Amino acid sequence: MRIRNLSIVFASLLVSASAMAAVGARTGGEVPAPPAIGATIDDFTLPDVDNKDYSLKSLMGKKGAVLIFIAVQCPVSNAYNERMEQLAQDYKAKGINVIGINSNITEDAAAVKAHAAEHKLTFTILKDPGNKIADRLGAAVTPEAYFIDTNNKLLYHGRIDNAKNPAQLETSDLRNALDAALTGKAIEKTEAKAFGCSIKRG
Amino acid sequence: MRFTKVIIPITLCVLLVSFATPAQKQKAPAAQPQKPTAVVTPIDTDALKGLLSQQRQKPLLVNFWATYCDPCRDEFPDLVKIDKDYRAQSIEFITVSLDDMTDINTEVPKFLDLMKAKMPAYLLNVNDPEPAINMVDQRWRGDLPATFLYNEKGEVVYKHIGRVNVAELREAIDKVVKKGSS
What we know:
- By secondary structure, chain A is an alpha/beta fold.
- Helices cover 33% and strands 19% of the residues of chain A.
- Chain B is globular and about 55 Å long.
């Protein structure tokens, strides 16, 4: 697995280096590359807002799980609070559990807990000290979602939908992916660029 | 006696009110919140594409940002300084906000005013930002801030995702300017 990951990272480095070499462009400041669609996400354990440890395996639904990197102070993530809670409620019954992850170094567990209570977020929210899981998953912004099946295989990565403002909603990319997987159909769009606030890394 | 006890406080009250009222009338009206002066132009994906890819006289620096993005706000004074230092001689500089259209006359110009920013400011007016992000750079994931430097042919010669390293950006500008003038 590690060798496969390394080869993916190496291949992406080669592609990016050659693309930039074309005009001699320089780059910097980018977050680690996310795993490719179809890659397996290794199990991990993180504390929740009450400092109780949960493994990904223990939170997995019967049909899969959605990991969403979220924030307390990000207006984009906050614009999605109701939609995320609704998503969690709609799909819990269908066997897919929504798990929030807060990787922002600037937001402690107490703030995350208070925020969840204020916005009535009932799904489990984990704290990611040292951004280890954000780095492993290459999460760049909040909100950013990863849908994995019960074998931890990554099926969808990216935004929840196209618009921060629900009035401009056109494509519910994450819901489309979940619905396709639940009905045994191929997921048409497996990646859609997430937009939002940068994850505050240490 | 009782009459005096009652009439004196009443008289005092009447006097107080009559003195207080003209004073209140003279009070300056509550200050209206000042309207931001910075002009922010909405731009869609096609117009942005045209702007970025066209041949031009000078290199073009583009900064994608949003008022909700802390590192964007943090780096903005550095960018304003770069604009001040380079605009007259060598580069064009535009900013493209990824804020909501609802912020185009409020939060975005308010911040630009605060920063004393003079570069032309745009706001990406699209329902779906993904095509614009892909058009700018397939490898850019849309995280902010993002800064791109284009040469006169419209090719990207420098890019940085995240808060810019000022020395690195100045070096890249100097390099492209030197190349253009030689």
